[in-house]
TrEMBL record:
Highest rank taxon of the organism: Bacteria
Protein name: Polymerase
Stretches that traverse the bilayer: 21-39, 45-66, 78-99, 111-128, 140-160, 232-247, 254-276, 339-362, 369-387
Species for this entry: Thiothrix litoralis
Keywords, sorted A to Z: Membrane, Transmembrane, Transmembrane helix
Length: 425
């Protein structure tokens, strides 16, 4: 039986099992683009410029698709391109208009957003390979899980030499000789690839393989307690497991239109609470002293300018927000208030674009990875005050889009989508 499959649109399902080479190829591709080996935020872990090279290759993949494969793009692909374009272009423009920051600083600051385009890079890379079955995908994710754990442990115990000669911190004294951190998380909290280490446990729970998931979940807990130690990320993981458990039981009856209810309830609820705290000078209960200072500054600026976008300043330009407000501010760390400061009223259509991408994929496929992607979206809105979910976690979002397409449309795990371009049997 012969057929023609497309690169980006939903291909026909085929029960093809990948070869060992195809599995290893997928492991290598996902590991390289996942952020596992990217330079960490404090510059001490990972490979310098790997993120930038990956972004460049992703842009080339997008150009290839738009020039040669444009007719094969699905509606979700266009939504993604529009969202990425706006996320990348808007902050530098508004930072230029509000703070006179040269555009090149803004674009360099926002380059992480382009990692959404990894979706096109991976799809183009595996477009000529055979299909991947459920068993293949499980093996691939298992390899990646243990690879991520091994890499993280090796970095945490300094079995892999840390980068020297350059470092980054909002407070220079943290890298002064003899500095003793009061925060026990300091040594490893900036390590990358948090998403990759969660994907295998998510997959097992989404498939209902709870006994098989026990050991990976225990190892994930140990990773969070002793290596990552980021409380907001830990809460996100718990909520994702909760939503996966709920959605997998209702995958065939769940009304995807209802998914907009959770973002609306939580975002509007948080907004009401933050406005109350700002209006009456109250501290926000889930923020520390410094976060509360930053929230009141950013929310005050947002309200005084009638929710007009401000963009974000780069520390590479005039010490960033320090030169404006006398305080180091990361809009990505202040969650919803930071998003409203950065994008203003335009935050809402941007969030709607992300919702539509997940809506279309879940409505069309309803497989294990679409469940995980839906759970990620819902959980991200539930923890909106704790981080910028539009600009962070881009690699995870992009790779889940790839895996949703790879697994195909049958939730009973009998068949799998083949992404081979051309003719096959």
């Amino acid at each position: 039986m012969q057929y023609n499959a497309t690169l980006l649109k939903a291909p026909p399902t085929m029960g093809i099992v990948a070869s060992t080479y195809d599995r290893l190829l997928m492991v290598a591709v996902l590991a390289l683009v996942s952020g596992l080996f990217f330079l960490s935020d404090d510059h001490r872990f990972g490979l310098a410029f790997l993120r930038e090279v990956t972004i460049g290759l992703s842009l080339m993949a997008v150009a290839y698709v738009l020039i040669l494969k444009k007719d094969e793009m699905d509606s979700v692909d266009w939504y993604l391109l529009v969202m990425v374009g706006l996320l990348f272009v808007m902050p530098p423009i508004f930072a230029y208009l509000n703070f006179h920051q040269p555009l090149q600083y803004g674009f360099l600051e926002e380059r992480r957003t382009l990692l959404y385009l990894l979706y096109f890079l991976v799809m183009a890379t595996i477009g000529g390979r055979k299909g991947y079955g459920d068993g293949d995908l499980e093996v691939i994710l298992k390899y990646l899980f243990f690879l991520t754990l091994a890499w993280s442990v090796a970095n945490a115990f300094e079995w892999i030499p840390r980068n020297s000669g350059f470092s980054f911190s909002v407070r220079a004294e943290q890298f002064a000789e003899g500095f003793v951190a009061t925060d026990e998380r300091f040594a490893t909290r900036f390590m990358e690839a948090g998403f990759l280490v969660t994907l295998y446990p998510y997959f097992l729970v989404a498939r209902g393989q709870f006994l098989k998931a026990v050991l990976p979940i225990l190892l994930l807990i140990a990773y969070m307690l002793y290596i990552n130690q980021t409380r907001g990320f830990g809460l996100l993981i718990v909520l994702i497991f909760f939503w996966i458990t709920v959605l997998r039981r209702r995958v065939d009856t769940f009304n995807v239109s209802a998914m907009a209810v959770v973002p609306a309830i939580f975002v509007l609820g948080y907004m009401a609470y933050l406005l109350y705290a700002h209006a009456f000078g109250k501290p926000v209960i889930f923020y520390d002293y410094h976060r509360n200072r930053e929230l009141h500054i950013l929310l005050g600026e947002t309200l005084s300018d009638f929710f007009m976008p401000h963009g974000a300043l780069s520390l590479q330009f005039n010490e960033g927000f320090l030169s404006v407000y006398g305080i180091n501010i990361y809009v990505s760390d202040i969650g919803l208030a930071g998003l409203l400061f950065k994008f203003g009223i335009l935050f809402f259509p941007l969030a709607f674009l992300m919702i539509m991408i997940v809506y279309l994929l879940f409505a069309k496929y309803r497989n294990d990875f679409s469940i995980i992607l839906m759970a990620l979206l819902l959980a991200s809105f539930m923890v909106a005050p704790f981080g910028d979910f539009l600009g962070r976690g881009t690699e995870g979002f992009a790779l889940l889009m790839v895996l949703v397409r790879l697994q195909g449309v049958d939730h009973e795990h009998k068949y799998i989508a083949c992404v081979r371009r051309g003719r096959a049997s």
